[in-house]
Q: What sequence folds into this?
């Protein structure tokens, strides 16, 4: 069964019927947002059953749309958190991907402010590698990007999409070795992205991120995961009551091949490892449960079938 990410938008009236249908067909609800009288459900549903969901949504005034960013966690990497390196494009990119279902985190580097001292420290590198993809939002000058990019990508294992003021062709020419995606003509400017051409550029960034993520999904499909990340989310919701007391956004953050659990590692990691999925197979049998470098959270990385010989 292939699960695909979709978004349901509709009125609050009878939305519980949609939630029940998603569960009945073997899908998972990743997030639920209630905004006034509107409900937004970010979910995974079986590919063969999407039309069933659309047919039920239509008389309720709901809409089901494909949302390739649902179930992903994206790092927006900027040289620093100072006003010089934190222009509105970085904030708007982080917000834009969030609207389309992704969980985004801003990563401001401690030593990214100048060519002479630009560097990643171990913690920054590890935090970025905990995400599904990294979007580097750099500045206006070719020479600066050319000098700093090889240093700022050192040790990064996740796919990288590079944004900068030079054209896409210029970015491709100056970055060696190449990264996974490029979006040019995104430089620093001190206002919100609200003009039509600026919003078009945000759409271009989303398209490039989506293209790179789809390529990563194809790689994962060649050696499928032992269990779906969304299924682990449901199991932890059912078996770890403390997760419902977490006030942080998305206490369980679904990733393409894992899960971030926003609970203290020392206290809860052992209990999470022991949670049974089915037939005496536990989470510890199919996933690495490690401490995250982001606060004191727990990081689950699901092992592929080739390592466990199990798919549940």
A:
């Amino acid at each position: 069964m292939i699960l695909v990410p979709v978004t349901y938008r509709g009125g609050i009236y009878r939305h519980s019927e949609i939630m029940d249908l998603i569960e009945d067909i073997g899908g998972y609800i990743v997030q639920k947002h209630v905004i006034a009288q509107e409900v937004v459900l970010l979910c995974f549903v079986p590919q063969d059953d999407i039309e069933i969901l659309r047919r039920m949504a239509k008389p309720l005034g709901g809409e089901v749309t494909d949302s390739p960013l649902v179930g992903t966690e994206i790092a927006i990497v900027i040289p620093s958190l100072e006003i010089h390196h934190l222009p509105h494009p970085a904030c708007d990119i982080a917000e834009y991907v969030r609207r389309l279902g992704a969980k985004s985190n801003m990563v401001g580097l401690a030593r990214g402010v100048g060519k002479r001292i630009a560097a990643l420290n171990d913690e920054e590198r590890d935090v970025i590698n905990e995400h599904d993809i990294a979007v580097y939002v750099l500045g206006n000058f070719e020479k600066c990007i050319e000098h700093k990019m090889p240093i700022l990508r050192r040790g990064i294992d996740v796919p990288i999409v590079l944004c900068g003021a030079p054209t896409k062709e210029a970015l491709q020419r100056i970055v060696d070795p190449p990264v996974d995606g490029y979006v040019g003509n995104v430089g620093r400017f001190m206002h919100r992205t609200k003009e039509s051409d600026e919003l078009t550029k945000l759409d271009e960034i989303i398209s490039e991120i989506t293209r790179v993520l789809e390529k990563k999904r194809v790689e994962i499909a060649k050696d499928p995961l032992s269990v779906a990340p969304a299924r682990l989310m449901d199991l932890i919701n059912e078996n770890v009551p403390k997760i419902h007391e977490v006030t942080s956004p998305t206490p369980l953050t679904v990733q393409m091949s894992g899960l971030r659990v926003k609970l203290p590692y020392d206290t809860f990691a052992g209990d999470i490892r022991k949670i049974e999925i089915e037939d005496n197979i536990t989470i510890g049998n199919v996933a690495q449960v490690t401490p995250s470098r982001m606060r004191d959270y727990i990081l689950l990385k699901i092992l592929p079938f080739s390592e466990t010989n199990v798919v549940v």
